[in-house]
């Protein structure tokens, strides 16, 4: 055990008895732990652990010159990391002289804790020979990194400074990350601090580049793997030395347009495409090595309450089924369950340049619900380069990740657990993928276009090609009704046919594997000469490839492999509804061609166009708003006021003059569909039209709840086909694109995988937007994102240990109202203070508004609750005993 080290803070009072006792204890400890009899390294401010000295010499130096104040880890003198203290904090009394107290530098303790967590297994033992010179074993790579950081940690920022060079630099870089400063502005700040504010000889670096070199050992790195320009292959493993693609023959290197050579003026060759891969193993290891996160990684086992309500993926059928099938994996709660998300994005803001970068993001689901989907816990796995998206050839780029996931499943990796202070074998598994609908097709291999666009219905997808509208419509929702339902026999109310087919069944992983077995080894390439064309018509399915995920031994046993994204489904449905009821040109599904399709199908005669001489009269549909109702709807949204954070400012999307609503983002559509449309449309449209729209809104509200029960999901699963059939009776067939069809499967997926908040794209899309902020060089956006992510990842780790400045983990809310206050005898409902914005404007409530406010208070006050319960009991007794 190491002695108490608080005596080192008395270095400026070296005649104090406490300091002298501490020196003796240090010498006893150093000679005992190193095994030396004559000399040890002297830690005084003059020798700085570089000169050997006898016990008497070291004692004299420590009394005369003083010990290095920040030398709190005695690795040169035999101390091991995480070694407990032998004495309590109260053993020494640090009051001396005229009552001056020792000042403890909390910031140094924070950085020291960080170093101890990152390098828990290092040993500072040294060996001596008979000669005077000290001989040491060559430190390994990890030890060299640690000693480099420790040297900067022990080096003061300037002479007699209470903070170290490393601590100051970490905080400066953290502020840069939080404030999103440019590299150039940070370099300017460093120069100004050194030249104008700090004493001469300050130990700050001169530029951001030098600062990054100092703290790079705190972060993790990434690998660049060259790729074929046609996405045929990666130049890695045994193919790493090739100069051309072995599939299509394309050159690996960029060719200069002038010299037509692969080498530039400096003699270097630049790859046409480079995948940036961020290894997963060290990033999972850090989750357990850090004392700040290791306890959270077993929350799903230690603190989750299993009461039949699904609040977390661990409550879901998919998680529990996986545990039953793989008990050896489930027995260790520290094994990590991961979700994979991917989507392409345009890296350049307000640009017409066609460029698409595809990040692949990993989400560790071991964390508790309030941390699981936070951006700080996302792990960037790879950056697939542009300018074009990979399409089905994304499997080419996923090879390094799949190989690492296979190793983590079969072999595992030795990991230090800071909570138990022991090593254990860490394994990991991939639960499912999260992506929008086009990316669903790229990752799963099932084409999400054409006759069989629905991957859940598989070969049983029901669709019709509209000859006039030239689009595929997906109706046939009567299949999901009970077999004796009366609507199955109705023709003209639907598509003109009777419905006798049973509902399609979800395919298991083994069934899917059997369907794609003949696509094993299919060459994925964008070179049309090398890519084999697949005829979906001949195959009778929509498979384009066998997904690379089937290389994972457990993939076929998963109940749900790919998730339908509720975010984009809500967005498309909302756009369909708003475009149709507002009759927006270019967005409505009610056009002349639509009416011709109705006439051709011989359904909805009341909507058929009427020929009057040379003119064609188009009857107004029951689902189209009148100009007056359009104005009311726009006015409602224009004057709408909602709580902060509830939605964006939707009123900015409203044009009262032209009666148009445009520019709605995905979350605006989410709020509009679930909360606003049911209120706005009542009284504007008939009951037959409003009822299914309100039912659809209620479906998404229940589906989006943070807590789900099987009973509620089974209820909306049974009700949703009825809702969609009601819509089929009202809206034209062109309204029913595949996105309107997909909600039929959402409740089933929620029963399997739990709440949708862990499986939709909202947090991922916001994170992709954050990645755009790293781009400073438009010539190489992928490199900017990679370097920016590495720096941000490092600062996120450091900010977990910083408590004296604002960080991502302790910063106040955007609009902080001061928290709860004492009610002072008033109602508890008014304990939450509010913050006014702008000048106060008095107004009087109408009688009905006053009554609504009164009822709200009565129903939401804890003080009124006993009276409400008494009233309910009184009502029950009055019914039983009239």
TrEMBL record:
Protein origin, superkingdom: Eukaryota
Record domain Transposase-associated: where: 5-79
A UniProt-annotated Pfam family: DUF4218
InterPro entries: DUF4218 (IPR025452), Transpos_assoc (IPR029480), Transposase_21 (IPR004242)
Domain DUF4218 as annotated: residue spans: 703-815
Protein name: Transposase-associated domain-containing protein
Source organism of this protein record: Solanum bulbocastanum
